[in-house]
Amino acid sequence: MILYVVSDRASYSANAGRKLREIRRTWQELGHEVELVCGGDTNAADPAAPAAAAAAKPRNPLLVSTPDLHGLHAPLVHSVSEWRDLQHDRRLAPYLERFLAGRTPELIWHRASRIHVAPLALAEKLGVPYVLEWIDRLVSYPLSLFHRKAVGADQRRMRAAHRVVVTSERWKQEVAKEYAIPPEKILVAQNAANPDDFVRDPQAGARVREHMGIPADALVVGFVGSYGWYHEADLVAIAASRLRQLLPRPVYFLMVGDGPHRAKLDAVVHNLGVDDLVRRQLAVPQPEVPQWLSAMDAGVVPASGGEIICPMKVQEYMSAGLAPIVADSAANREVVTENETGLFFRSSDADSMAAAISRLAQRPGWAAELGRAGREDVLTRFTWRETFGRALQQIVTEPGGSLA
């Protein structure tokens, strides 16, 4: 049995995200028993019924530590958040033991969050391999009361892990250098998509276009997301304004989703007078997402994603037969091949984004050609079985990690 621990105190196994569900499903299809435990499950009275935790109150945004947090109050917010993580890690340790109820997993796979070391301590206590899934820079700020403890937790997990799993070759290089660990200890498991969930449906796409008032023969560039601070979705409105001046025919943008920075996009769209070009739809149920993707020719990822992570959204666009238009970063270039499966623009540069879209608009049929090539790439390189499934199989069949 594999114990998969996602220790973030705001995550719940009852409503695990698509990536967690896909990884678990893939491992199970490979013949492994997988138990998923999320940090928020500790709020449930009964360890066997983590669904009760899903009703927990959402986090107070004033106390949420994020990389974009600045100002004199930032160290205080980071310190409070770290203190809450420390308290949560103390609760997580006995919770995991109660959850196991005397069972011993063959391996503990930990999707790390800041400060949490309970999964590592349990692996050491039980004498089983500990795999560290390193998703991002967890301590990306310089000042806080528990900063040294947070950095120390990072270093302890890195040193003790049997294997470290990251999502790009670039991230692998940086982790090896920063933590002075051998590169061969680190495995790369790219984000992926389930191609069966993103099958293009032209008829459904035509209905969406009609519903949104978009001409059937227009070039449509889409976005589906949560409008987090990191999405930079307002760049799309600026690009739409530039394209109105560059091209004789309009390019339409179809933005699907909701979130904390949706209002910023709305304001920029209104101020630039591109309401007719940037069509917006609130979040739709996940089963309906393929219908909306089918109305698009290309999918834009406004945010750079940094140099270390290619967002899962890119593989999903490719799987749906869209031409991805993404920021030029090292991690994105590991997934997208320029002019063959997608196009790049300079990070945070709306003019560069507009130029890339303009190239696409001036070559009829090119978007579909890129989309077909991209889907083939997903089928061969970026399914969950090829990424996280392959990583697990390598770990469990090597010395020290076997589940035999």
Q: How large is the share of residues in beta strands? A: 5-15%
CATH uppermost class of the largest domain: Alpha Beta
Number of strands: 12
Assign the structural class, choosing from mainly alpha, mainly beta, alpha/beta, alpha+beta, or little secondary structure: alpha/beta
Q: Which stretches are poorly predicted, pLDDT < 50 over at least 5 residues?
A: 51-57
Major sheet: order of its strands?
Answer: 2-1-3-4-5-6
CATH structural fold name of the largest domain = Rossmann fold
* Rounded average pLDDT: 91
* Name of the CATH architecture of the largest domain: 3-Layer(aba) Sandwich
Whole-Å distance between the termini?
11 Å
Element pattern in H and E: EHEHEHEHEHEHEHEHEHEHEHEHHH
**Relevant CATH superfamily of the largest domain:** Glycogen Phosphorylase B
Number of domains: 2
Count of runs of 4 or more consecutive helical residues = 14
Q: What is the global morphology?
A: globular
Radius of gyration: 22 Å
Q: Strand count, sense and closure of the main sheet?
A: 6 strands, parallel
Helix content: 40-55%
Q: How does this model look, in words?
A:
- The chain has 14 helices and 12 strands.
- It is an alpha/beta fold and 404 residues long.
- The chain has 2 domains: 204 residues, Rossmann fold (3-Layer(aba) Sandwich); 187 residues, Rossmann fold.
- Strand 11, helix 11 and strand 12 form a beta-alpha-beta unit.
Structure at a glance:
By secondary structure, the chain is an alpha/beta fold. The chain contains 14 helices and twelve strands.
Annotation keywords:
404 residues, alpha/beta, Rossmann fold, six-stranded parallel beta sheet, 14 helices, 41% helix, 14% strand
